[in-house]
Amino acid sequence: MQFFSGSVFLSGMAVITASGLTRTFTAHRGTVEAVRGIDLAVGHGEILGLLGPNGAGKTTTLRMLTTLLAPTGGSATVAGCDLVRDPAGVRRATGYVAQSGGVDPNISVREELVTQGRLYRLPKARAAARAGELAHDLGLEGLLDRPCAALSGGQRRRLDIAMGLLHRPAVLFLDEPTTGLDPGSRAALWELVRRLRADFGTTVVLTTHHLDEADALADRLVVVDNGVVAAEGTPRALKTAYAGSPDASLQDAFLAITGRGPAPADTTPVAV
Amino acid sequence: MTSVLSDTALIFGRYARQSLRSKVQMLFGVLMPLLYLLFFGPLLTKLPLASEGSSWQVLVPGLLLQLALFGASFCGFAILLEKQYGVVERMRVTPVSRLALLLGRVLRDTVLLTFQAGLLVLVALVMGLRAPLGGILIGFAFVAATAVALSSLSYALALKVSSPQEFGPVVNAATMPTMLLSGLMLPMALAPGWLDVLSRFMPLRHLVDGVRAAYVGDYTGTPVLYGALTAAGLAAVAAAVCTRAFRRAAA
């Protein structure tokens, strides 16, 4: 069931499209259909929340859209580039912040940021300048010359996010971006995401188990369950349709859609 | 092509800086062959190991290839760690050339192992090795070719397996028999016929025989020729296998 609002994704400027996107894993014990034909259309500057219980297919979908996994069926484009025919084009246009991060603990924050910029083909001076800008924006300024291992969990997460933003991607994929962050850091991250959209028109796709976060941040939600889209719409529309009132909690709507609660998010606060 | 070269330089730079930061890593790799040189070499000085030249000219080439064998075969451990940190995946979502992700690493390993080989030869010269410069340079070239081949294969294996517990035993199972059957410690000319025949199937045997010949100034005989052909073939086959594995794993 779909509940569209009048947001940008209806304007025909879809930055991400997916049609029947499928991923089947083959193992010794048989095949697992992790994603079973997902259709998506995400508009320019839209913030899309991808929700679902553990094992629903959210991360597999994200990994396909970021070219980390080849689809076994269907097709998709990101920023006008086909996932299979032009993966390099997809990579140039996107930033990805994985759930588990991706920095070497023995390397300094500055070197990781500059190297990441250069992997996106920024000239060295530009990469260094962007590293400084992002360190300023994300509160990492005084930490640039420390090894990544010396950062707290919250600082490390902000660094992960900075790594995804070095080249100012048109599309940013965030996999559980606030897991492990304390409430202050979460709020700061939400603000950053909103600013990216407002200042640069960045399209953001994020997965989260924090339903309050999805409610507050996303223009639109796609609930994935058992590898298919179970429901789609604005947070308000989903609450109205599935929990009976726009003032109901997204948790109630989520329960009604999937028949079960979201996996508990890691709520352990991390010092920042 | 330009992007492959510049990306390779970028990846090489990252890992070269990592090695330079870890002085212990630079010296640790050379420790085992150095111990053989210090504590095993003197036992051989009075033994007639070769028809010409001294025992050092037999032992040092073996130790050089041993350094390359063990140093390069375990390179994959680094990528296993990086997989755990999420660094491999982070690089895979960037537009960096997939081939450069491999070549940059292999180039760093090759430079590091050749540098360690240089240290080993310097110590050997102090201990009594005498060999022509051409032979020593051929030795370094064979070490470099072995490093390219084996570090490529090591990375290919590390991409396939999911943990160091899987990786370590496979590499150990391959390297120990290779070392023994290639005649790295003592020349296979001393072996009984069946062992000598068996060892001829080991590519490293031809490399070490080539370096030993070069160390006594015999550059034009079949051992150096066979060694060079084996080195080139080994490096080409390994690089092809590994590029395929890397492209598949990091498509």
Would you write up a description of this structure?
- The complex is a heterodimer of chains A (272) and B (251).
- With 272 residues, chain A is of the alpha/beta class.
- Chain A has one domain (2-108, 169-258): Rossmann fold (3-Layer(aba) Sandwich), CATH 3.40.50.300.
- In chain A, 35% of the residues lie in helices and 25% in strands.
- In chain A, strands 1-11-10-4-9-8-7 form a seven-stranded mixed β-sheet, with helices on both faces.
- In chain A, helix 3 packs across helix 4 and helix 3 packs parallel to helix 5.
- The longest helix of chain A has 18 residues, at 183-200.
- Chain A is globular and about 50 Å long.
- Chain A starts with a strand and ends in a 14-residue tail after the last helix.
- By secondary structure, chain B is mainly α.
- Chain B has one domain (2-249).
- Chain B is built from 13 helices and no strands.
- Chain B has helices at 2-21, 23-28, 31-39, 41-44, 56-73, 76-85, 87-92, 98-127, 133-160, 164-181, 193-199, 203-215, 222-249.
- The two termini of chain B are 18 Å apart.
- The model of chain B has no long low-confidence stretch (mean pLDDT 88).
- At the A-B interface, helix 2 and helix 3 of A face helix 1 and helix 7 of B.
